[in-house]
Structures are given as C-alpha cells and as structure tokens.
Amino acid sequence: MSKLRIACIQTNSSPNPEENIAIVSVLIREACAAGAEFITTPEVVGMLEPDRIAALSKAQSEEKHQVLFAFQELALELGIWLLIGSISIKVSDTKLSNRSFLINPNGEVIARYSKIHMFDVEVGDGNKYLESKTYEPGSKAVIAETPWGLMGLTICYDIRFPNLFRDLAKAGAKVIFSPAAFTRVTGEAHWHVLQRARAIENGCYIVSPAQVGTHANNRKTFGHSLIVNPWGEVLADGGTETGFIVSELDLGAVDICRSKVPSLYNDQAYLKPF
Predict the structure, then answer these.
(1) How would residue 125 be classed by pLDDT, with cut points 50, 70 and 90?
(2) Is 8 an active-site residue?
C-alpha cells in the first residue's frame, strides 16, 4: 500500500497512569474517527514522573503493564495500527527501560524498541536531566515491517544522532518515528530543524508525536508534534495545545526524493586526518 493516513497524538502526561490512559484513549478515538489508520503517541505517554523514586515505584514490567495492555485492547477494538511512543518498563529494582511498542490491528506487539541515547544534559531551564540514573539504555536499532513498508523506531534524544537514522533508512525504512518529550528550551531552539534535517538527509517521512505543556515538578515540554515529508516539508504541526494532527503519507514520494537527491546511496569511505 502506498497511501497511509497517520496521526500524532499530542498530550500532557501526568504522573498518574490511569489518568493518562483515559485522556489519551479519547484522543486516539477522535483521531480514528478523523480517518487515521495508524496512530502514534508521545514518549512517556503512560507516565511522566520526574521523581526517580516514585517512577521506580509506579513502573511495571512489560508482562504486567497496564498501559501496554490498555492500548493493545484499544488497537484491537478500533482496528488500527498504534505506536506507543514509549512507556516506562521496570527491568530491575533500580532501573527502567524507556521502551516503544508498535501494535498491529490484532492488538499484537510486532516491534519494541528501547531508547539508546540517554538524555543527560543541563539545558539552562533550571533543571538537570539525568536519564541514565533511572533508565537503562537500549543497544539495538529496530525496523518494523508494515503493510506500507519498513518503518524505523527511535525516541526523542535519538534525533540528535544522525547515524542511527541513516542506518534505519539504509535498512529500508521509509518512515521513521521520533516520539518525544522535548524540553521547551531545546524545542524552541532545535526541534523543527532537527526533524526536517533527518527527513531531508534520509529522504524519508519523520513522524514525531510530542508531549506539550507544564508537567509535574514544573517540567515544561515543547509540543509541536510534526509530520515531515521526505523533501523536508512540514505537513502538519501540533502547535502548543493538546489534541492530534492527521496527514496522508504518500510512500511513493520516498523513492522519488531518493532518486532526485541520492545522498543515501552516495556515502563514501574516506581517510580521517587524525
């Protein structure tokens, strides 16, 4: 299939998983009613809990995860493809995994990806982010097979590591997901240009559902969920309010863009002067 109607959910997740399930489920139903057959949600969609001890206490294993189960049931009920941008999966007493799940219309998980690059930064907004203190990094790039072709999974901070996107594109991905909870400071400076750059470099669609607004402990996220085409054009922008955006992807445009500017295939080995 060459045409795909896809949606990005933009939400403001709280530390309460039950509350987030209820709010996001309504938005997913609305996006489905608007004609979306493939719906994506942001990073940490099930629980945005800045407090490490509380996050470890509330998180569940994949086998028992209420958010995963709720969205699997919803995908089955609505007959949609659903990307859970990420949820916090308990992998030990001291560590979580920031993990994304792709669910098919039968409610089955067909791909899972654990965030590779940990957000350990001080961006100047008064907060210090030490993701590696709570989360265990993943080590494997992930490609998923869908009726529309291969799709690549990434999460948030991964967007700053172009080699990951290049590898996914070279492996055949025509769509790459970048669900996020981007800080407002870095979002205002870099969000749009990073998303468009990854699309242009790799001649692929970039689909980036995002968190928005003020969360617990005064954490602020940027919003502006984006759907970007292979030529770097923004097809839809979620702005700064909760809700959803929908756009139609023409997967044939990927081959056209890659033939016009074949940089994906023109990589050359070179000697390093050091």
Answers:
(1) confident
(2) no
